[in-house]
Amino acid sequence: MKFGDSTKIDYIPWSLAFSIASTAALTFLVHCFFVHRLFKLSERNWYITVPMGILALLRVAFACLTTSKMIIFKSISQFIREFRWSFTLGLALSCALDIIITASLCYFLLRNRKQTSSMNHVIDSLMLYAFENGSLTCAATVMSMICWLTMPSNLVFMGIHFFISKRESGLPLPR
User: Fold this and answer.
1) What is the spatial distance between Cα 44 and Cα 40, in angstroms, rounded to a whole number?
2) Which of 150, 144, 148 is nearest to 165 (CA)?
3) In terms of DSSP H, where are the helices of the chain?
4) Of 10, 27, 3, which is closest to residue 163 (Cα–Cα)?
């Protein structure tokens, strides 16, 4: 038994570190999908979609930096001392991007509504879906960031971070 051995508690297995990069990769694909949808909805507006793509790339870059440093350090306390900012910035970028994409989708869908159209019901349903999906993912990211900033050494934030990847993949949530 390793009960009370703080060196074992502080150890970061490679699989835990890799889960951050895999979540970021999955999130990147989802963000790219929605940015592409926004590109079409905005009538090919590069000024709106290119900054979103850059934010998505930055989020993946910070997640890869976080993963590599966790694998190199193998210590949560050392990672927190030297690279806490990278994981925080990655979560902040993901949350900001979720808000921007959700708001943009709702705006462009609302703009496409017509006064007397049978498609308005479908557009309303798509707006509701975009809002629910974006707000749920953003809430999970914010909760993960709050736990990370207030309790970084107990890994509660990782449990919520696992939820983000499951939510982004579209898999059904456990009941």
Assistant:
1) 5
2) 144
3) 6-9, 14-41, 46-73, 76-111, 120-150, 156-169
4) 27
Contacts of 20 (CB under 8 A, 6+ apart): 63, 66, 67, 70, 87, 90, 161
- Convert the pLDDT of each residue in 35-56 to its tens digit: 999 999 999 999 999 999 999 9
The residue assigned the tokens 């007397």 is 116
Decide: 140 and 157 in contact? Cβ < 8 Å.
no
Q: Using alpha carbons, select from 171, 174, 164, 153 the residue that is nearest to residue 22.
A: 164
**Token code pair at residue 104:** 């943009």
* 104 close to 50: Cβ distance less than 8 angstroms: no
Identify the band that residue 2 occupies on the pLDDT scale cut at 50, 70 and 90: low
Sequence ranges of the domains in the chain = 10-169
* DSSP class of 174: P
Min mean pLDDT across 21-25, 42-46, 144-148, 162-166 is at 162-166
Residue type, 56: A
Query: What is the C-alpha radius of gyration for the chain, rounded to an integer number of angstroms?
Result: 19
